Amino acid sequence: MATQGMPNKGVVTKRLHKELMQIQKDPPPGIKINEEKAATVLNTWHVDLDGAPNSIYAGEKFQLQFKFSNKYPFDSPEVVFIGSNIPVHPHVYSNGHICLSILTEDWSPALSVQSVCLSIISMLSSCTEKKRPPDNSFYVKTCNKSPKKTKWWYHDDSV
């Protein structure tokens, strides 16, 4: 039985199927989902991202992993970069964790895998210098395996 205000497993499955079908039918430029993996393990998706043309990441390929809880879309997915090419970016830690507010306190059930991917591509595209966050070494040594358990401090909040 679902708790009031929280989706049940059927609602989550229906939402994920709908999002998967949308991305398969009309994928945004530079975004490709591993459809085979998503079809077999619906709560974990791998998404390939291309660095945007005319950005410092042009021609580079990245991979994101999305993990969905049974509270999705009311709870944000866990999203991390995986694989051998983690972008060097002021908001991306070398372990693949992404410091992006829509993945935590600014999450809304109106957001989707597609909108998260587009936000990450936009974040990468606006970058002018490849560098890690200033606290990368400390964070990577001390963080929880799940970025959702991090209390993020946004470095550019003080700007």
Order of helices and strands: HEHEEEHH
Mean pLDDT: 88
The CATH architecture classification of the domain at 16-124 is Roll
CA radius of gyration is 16 Å
Estimated share of beta-strand residues: 5-15%
CATH superfamily of the domain at 16-124: Ubiquitin Conjugating Enzyme
Which overall shape is indicated by the principal axes computed on the Cα atoms? Answer: globular
The major β-sheet equals:
4 strands, antiparallel
- Helicity, as a percent range: 25-40%
Strand line-up in the sheet with most strands: 1-2-3-4
Low-confidence stretches: none
The end-to-end distance, rounded to whole angstroms, is: 46 Å
What's the CATH C level of the domain at 16-124? Alpha Beta
Give me the count of strands. Answer: 4
- Given the helix and strand composition, which structural class is it? alpha+beta
Explain this structure to me?
The longest helix is centred in the N-terminal third of the chain and has 17 residues, at 9-25. Helix content is 27%, strand content 14%. It has a domain at 16-124: Ubiquitin Conjugating Enzyme (Roll), CATH 3.10.110.10. The termini are far apart. It contains four helices and four strands. The protein has helices spanning 9-25, 35-40, 113-125, 136-142, and strands at 31-33, 44-50, 61-67, 78-82. The mean pLDDT is 88. A four-stranded antiparallel β-sheet has the order 1-2-3-4. The chain has 159 residues and is α+β, with helices and mostly antiparallel strands.
